[in-house]
Amino acid sequence: MLRRKYGRENPSGVEVFTNVGVHGCDSTVTINLNFSAGLSSTISDAICDGESIVVNGTTYDASNPTGTEVFPNVGPNGCDSTVTINLTVLPAATSTISDHLCYSDNMVVNGTTYDVNNPSGTEVLPNATANGCDSTITINLTFDAAIDATVTNNAPTLTANQSGATYQWIDCTNGNSPISGANSQSYAAPANGLYAVQVTVGGCTETSSCESVSNVGISELDKSIITIYPNPSSGIFHVAIEDQVDALNYSVTDLGGRIIRNEGLSNSQQFNIDLSTESKGIYLLHVHHASGVRIFKLVLR
Question: Is 287:248 a contact under the CB 8 Å cutoff?
């Protein structure tokens, strides 16, 4: 056993071991040590919060950003390699969308639609920040209660079914223009046409479908003046006028106000309307003649 400790500070020397030979002679040992430099390196990197790297089986992340790892016997002379880890953890980008919407509204975030059936969630936008990290958005939406936008049609009186609201009746045949003073839950139409109501509860507004009113003034109309047959019809409606008129114009619309037929006639007492190419349902015939405008319901079956 060597009597002295040899290392980088004491790389050489002579050791004498007495009476160790086969004949009891001394043995002299000369020590000359050569040291190879060990390998060392440093990992200095930036990672986003939530990311990690693994070095020599150790995980380095936001909770463990620094350390030293030794790889035994990996150098060119069988020496150890030492790696120093210094990580910079970039802060996460997070935000929250908390909003209040009407029942029928929705919001699209990162391609996902959030509505009353899907009011909350989390969206991750990859590499969206200036430092290249992901951005996480938390969505929390609340919605108002649904508004009943249906109407009870007891023509010529129309009644909105939603109570406790603000009302504005509109004229569908006049570009959905508001009707001045028509702000009650019920509305008595003064003339034949198509009407709807805008119902507002809180800050939300829903609009009903257009409702037809076609019986205003019919009680005063001499039914022998204009006769329509057959009605209902499978396609062809015959219109007869008792007295010949010099000029007549008629149009046919669906309940949404779309004009399907529009024609002017002169010196005519009868004409036909062909709706055989239209979908089955209810249509309105608007007849303009000397005594005024009359609206009739056509039933296509």
Answer: yes
Query: Which residue in this structure is represented by tokens 């030979």?
Result: 21
Q: Using 50 as the pLDDT threshold, list the residues of the chain that sit under it.
A: 219-224
CA distances from 5 to 12, 29, 36, 140 (A): 10, 14, 18, 71
Domain 218-300 CATH class label: mainly beta
DSSP string, 70-81: EETT-STTS--E
The C-alpha atoms of residue 233 and residue 47 are separated, in whole angstroms, by 76
pLDDT in tens, 162-182: 999 999 999 998 889 999 989
3-state secondary structure 111-164: CEEECCCCCEEEEEECCCCCCCCCEEEEEEEEECCCCCCCEEEECCEEEECCCC
In DSSP terms, which residues pair with 31 in a beta bridge? 13
Q: Domain boundaries in the chain? A: 39-90, 93-143, 151-213, 218-300
